Amino acid sequence: MAPGPSLMENLKPLSAYLKPARGRGMAKVLVADVELCVGCERCALMCAFNKFKVFNPRRGAIYVVKMEPGIDAPVFCIQCGACIDACPAGAIYRDPKTDVVMIDEEKCTGCGTCVTVCPYGAVHVDPVTKKAFKCTYCGFCVKYCPQSALKFVEPEEALWLKRKNMARSLTASPTLARKLWWRPPLR
After folding, report:
1. What's the pLDDT at 173?
2. pTM of the model
3. Contact 108, 91 (CB under 8 A)
4. Does 131 reside within a domain?
5. Per-residue model confidence (pLDDT) at position 23
């Protein structure tokens, strides 16, 4: 029996997954406003409680990156779908009704391929269940964010907020701006 195509042959270029939510059929998009986020990690805590019934932010599908003092950014799945094509067990699929990328825990082998290919670091393998998990847009983090930094918005508003967050991060932190945009001079 001849071997099938390798994982790398099945993957599309990264640009194919980085399309805006508009046109994918999503009614609302989860966004984070970095101006409002204070880095309390309540979103991760409540996510872990909702999914695993434990108060451990490290087991949440959302996590907070402390970019600079005073600049905190929640990170979660943006539903790009890069993990769908990569999953060798076929456990990851896009829900036809909601357009949200889901993981079938019965099919998941916990191999971690989805973790490796996620361009946002938003897919995780739980250390206890040994199964992959990610944000399912359940809204628990939105409900319990004390600053209302997380919310569901229309796709067009999500694109605007993304631009605003980037501009704020760059103007609030010259150090961060240099890290993101500095290029060595050409010689």
Report:
1. 63
2. 0.74
3. yes
4. yes
5. 44
